[in-house]
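Retro notes (design track)

What went well: tokenization of the new backbones is finally stable.
What didn't: we kept losing track of which sequence belonged to which structure.
Fix going forward: every design gets posted as structure first, then sequence, in one message. First example under the new rule, 201 residues:
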């Protein structure tokens, strides 16, 4: 069993934004390439540590990361270039980004929230409208029916409408934030986060 060094770059941003983006990146890597302990990609690194270092170019940053990152540990992020003017910088931009993150959290936690609500209900059993199965409330683990997989199990019509509404808002807010960030692209052409990790393989 060996290890391989994996690195990637992210647009210059504040640390909070970097952490969110890195976590999304890890999730998609795990979906595409597996999440076992020797998967050999950055998706299995134990979170992200930001080192207070600024390099002049990407190669110097990669050298540093190769020497300082460790197998079975977190990925490390360092800066390349000048981050003085990067997104989000104004209060408005920060607020709009926060709105986007809140919408994303609502979407990410949707199933969990439905399950929590179902479990807190007084009735001992929950019936599935589609297949007629009765499930003990305290054993509900998914938001769809464990027997027939119907999503009309603990999710109501109102919930569905709400979900559509939230996803629509998320799309719009994403576009808005993307446009705001666009302004910073030129000025940050050479500035970026470089993130590296040694990954067991
Ligand atoms: Zn069912």
């Amino acid at each position: 069993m060996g290890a391989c060094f994996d690195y990637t770059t992210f647009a210059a941003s504040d640390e909070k934004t970097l952490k969110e983006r890195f976590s999304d990146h890890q999730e998609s890597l795990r979906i595409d390439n597996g999440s076992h302990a020797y998967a050999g990609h950055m998706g299995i690194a134990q979170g992200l540590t930001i080192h207070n270092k600024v390099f002049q170019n990407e190669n110097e940053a990669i050298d540093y990361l190769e020497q300082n990152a460790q197998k079975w540990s977190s990925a490390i992020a360092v800066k390349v270039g000048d981050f003085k003017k990067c997104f989000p910088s104004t209060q408005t931009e920060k607020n709009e980004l926060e709105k986007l993150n809140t919408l994303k959290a609502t979407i990410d936690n949707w199933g969990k929230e439905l399950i929590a609500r179902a479990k807190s209900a007084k009735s001992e059993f929950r019936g599935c409208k589609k297949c007629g199965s009765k499930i003990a409330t305290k054993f509900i683990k998914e938001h769809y029916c464990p027997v027939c997989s119907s999503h009309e199990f603990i999710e109501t019509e109102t919930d569905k409408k709400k979900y559509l509404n939230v996803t629509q808002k998320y799309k719009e807010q994403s576009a808005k934030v993307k446009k705001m960030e666009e302004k910073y692209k030129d000025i940050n052409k050479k500035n970026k986060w470089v993130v590296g990790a040694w990954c067991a393989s």
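Added context from the reviewer: The pocket of zinc ion is lined by residues 128, 130-131, 133, 145, 147-148, 150 (CB under 6 Å).
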